[in-house]
Amino acid sequence: MILDTLENFGKYANLNPLFPKVVEYLQQTDLMAQEPGRVNIDGNKLFVNHNVTKGKTVDEAKMETHDSMIDIQIPLSCPEVMGYMPRQYLSEAPYNAAKDITFYPDRPEQYITVHPGEFVIFFPQDGHAPCISPIPEYKKVIFKVKA
Q: Helix or strand or coil: residue 96?
C-alpha cells in the first residue's frame, strides 16, 4: 500500500509499466469535471472508474482484495477513510474471477484517511475496506491497473 499526494504520483511511475499512462491521464484530465462512468485508457489493462460513491460506516465497509488488478483510489469531494490489512492475515474466502474480487469477513487492523489531493495504491497483497465516510454520496476515481 502506498499513500501520498497526487503531485508526487510521478515518483511511482516505475512501479508498473502502465503507471506512466496514469500520470499522463492525471495531468490531462480535470477529475472533478468528469461524469460518472468508465474510461478505457489501455483496454482492460488500464481503465478508470469515475464514481459517485455512497459513504459507508466502519461496519458496512467490507475487506476486499483483487488478484489481477491494482487499485489507485483518489477521493475527490471529501476525505475518505479506508481500512487496511495485509492479505496474508485475512481469512480464506471465495474469489470472484469475473469481477476480480474477494470479500472477507475480517475487520481491518488499521485505518487511514485519504484526503482530496491524495491517492492510495492497493496492490494484490493489500486487503482494503474503502468508502468509509459520513458523507452520503461523494465523488472519487479508481484506476484499475493490470498487476
A: strand
Q: What is the pLDDT of residues 6-52, one digit of tens each?
A: 999 999 999 999 999 999 999 999 999 999 999 999 999 999 999 99
Residue pointed to by grid coordinates 487499485: 71
Distance from C-alpha of 61 to C-alpha of 139, rounded to nearest angstrom: 17
Tabulate helix, strand, coil % of the chain (nearest 5). 20, 50, 35
3-state secondary structure of 87: helix
The SS3 call for residue 142 is: strand
Cα–Cα distance between 22 and 41 in angstroms, integer?
8
For 111, how many CA atoms within 13 A lie in the half-sphere containing its CB?
15
138-to-39, 51, 78 alpha-carbon distances in Å: 19, 8, 7
Q: In what order do the strands lie in the sheet with 46-54?
A: 2-5, 118-122, 69-75, 137-146, 46-54, 37-42
Q: Which domains does the chain have, with CATH numbers?
A: 2-146 (2.60.120.370)
Phi, psi of 19 (to 5 degrees): -60, -35
